[in-house]
Amino acid sequence: MSVPQHLNLVDGEWVDGERRPNTNPARPDEMVSEYAQADPGTVRTAIEAARVAQPGWARQPVAERMGLLDRIGTAILARVEELAVLLAREEGKLLAEARGEVTRAGQTFRYYAHQLLQPAGEVYASTRPDVHAEVRRRPLGVVGVITPWNYPLAIPAWKVAPALAYGNTVVLKPADLVPASAGELARIVVDAGAPSGVFNMVLGEGRVVGEELLTSTAVDGISFTGGTTTGAHVARQCIEHGNKRFQLEMGGKNPLVVLDDADLDVAVACALDGSFFSTGQRCTASSRLIVQAGIHDRFVAALAAATDALRVGDPLDPDSQLGPVASSGQLRQNLDYVRVGVDEGATVVAGGTHRPEDGQFMRPTLLTGARNDMRVAREEIFGPVSCVVRVDDLDEAVDVANDTRYGLSAGIVTTSLRAAERFKRDARAGIVSVNLPTAGTELHLPFGGTGASNHGPREQGGYARDFYTVPVTCYTGW
């Protein structure tokens, strides 16, 4: 059986390049597809195509842009099962989770189609007589979109959809680890009737393909999701090359606080989901469990038992509850952090093991006896590893939760309305949950954090407009 091929999309044409294999993390010997790497010249051509196409796309009637986005979303939703299987094979996400991601991607395009019917500006009363004052929104221009491997359809969707909706053109650079999912999205966009140059996709390594986007003065903005170190580099390059606008969604070291009055079953369910589901490969994962002393031992015992009971296996197996780690490099990093935690004085009470013959599968790991100054409690691991920090009361819990350079997501499990309101008020995070996992978000609400987790306007919902458009204040004298 022939292996699917995924090429670069430049100005409406499929462009070949040096081929690279794309393999299945659950079965590393199985090739999912081959993809063509873009060279710097191909990226520059894509940027120029987007630059030429942008004015015409921005002038298209709203109904035309709505129609394209709706057709893209509808096509994604018509292929949920097919795309979910591809996503599971390529990234290692459980098939059920993959179905949810594909559905979210399709819904996102349809959501932004309808967002175009919302008011496009504001009218103000002028302080001067016979003057009309208004604010209009113009497209930012050419947007470079750089996306990670952990949500290879959903994250491109929530960046590309609003960019196109508001009249921008796009050059998408997906993560090198997941070219097939992005390649299928590109085919759907083309088949839906996107004009040449409006949407372009370039595949390959960040140091080659991404750098061309960052250093091009023909790119007006960069929307990036990824690690904090890379995000800092993105910001520097954007400032130094054209002072382009940038939007950075980066890491997290998200706390889940469990108070003495918490419902134990709810607390364990929230921690299990937030810490380990999606193999812990979520920027909103609960990687710090901050537990009050009175419930600590019962919570640890129950969570450790639930963690050990999780079934790790092939993502296409309906009995699996966790899939593989997405790459061998990520697996090594996860195991290194477990060793670091033990060396620092923490204790492994669940998981912590990996058999080389199992490939890229790792048992979910729970560490207890952690302190908030340990590396495992301060650095983003991005794997199925979580640590428990014991605290005495709510005040200490809030202080420990906020003692981090990050600030993406935070949660609390409690039956006290007073404690919940205190946490919602004082937790330094962009997303706060009560009696729910820290990882649950919705497409029509803003997504983003504080501190090292975020720089720039929020993503998703109506808030996406703030990045992809430029407000223009207009005064008209009678």
What is the element layout, followed by pairings?
Layout: E1 5-6, E2 8-10, E3 13-15, E4 18-24, E5 27-37, H1 40-58, H2 62-78, H3 80-91, H4 95-115, E6 121-125, E7 131-139, E8 142-146, H5 154-165, E9 169-173, H6 179-191, E10 199-201, H7 206-215, E11 221-225, H8 228-240, E12 245-249, E13 254-258, H9 264-276, E14 286-292, H10 293-309, H11 328-344, E15 347-350, E16 365-370, H12 375-378, E17 385-391, H13 394-402, E18 409-413, H14 417-426, E19 431-434, E20 454-455, H15 465-468, E21 469-477
Parallel strand pairs: 1-5, 8-9, 8-11, 9-10, 11-12, 13-14, 13-18, 14-17, 16-17, 18-19
Antiparallel strand pairs: 2-3, 4-5, 6-7, 7-21, 12-20, 15-16
Describe this structure in words.
This protein is an alpha/beta fold and 478 residues long. The protein folds into 2 domains: 5-250 and 445-477, Aldehyde Dehydrogenase, Chain A, domain 1 (3-Layer(aba) Sandwich); 254-434, Aldehyde Dehydrogenase, Chain A, domain 2 (3-Layer(aba) Sandwich). The protein is built from 15 helices and 21 strands. It has helices at residues 40-58, 62-78, 80-91, 95-115, 154-165, 179-191, 206-215, 228-240, 264-276, 293-309, 328-344, 375-378, 394-402, 417-426, 465-468, and strands at 5-6, 8-10, 13-15, 18-24, 27-37, 121-125, 131-139, 142-146, 169-173, 199-201, 221-225, 245-249, 254-258, 286-292, 347-350, 365-370, 385-391, 409-413, 431-434, 454-455, 469-477. It has a 7-stranded mixed sheet with strand order 15-16-17-14-13-18-19, with helices on both faces. It has a 6-stranded mixed sheet with strand order 10-9-8-11-12-20, sandwiched between helices. A 3-stranded mixed sheet has the order 1-5-4. Helix 1 packs across helix 7 (206-215) and helix 2 runs antiparallel to helix 4.
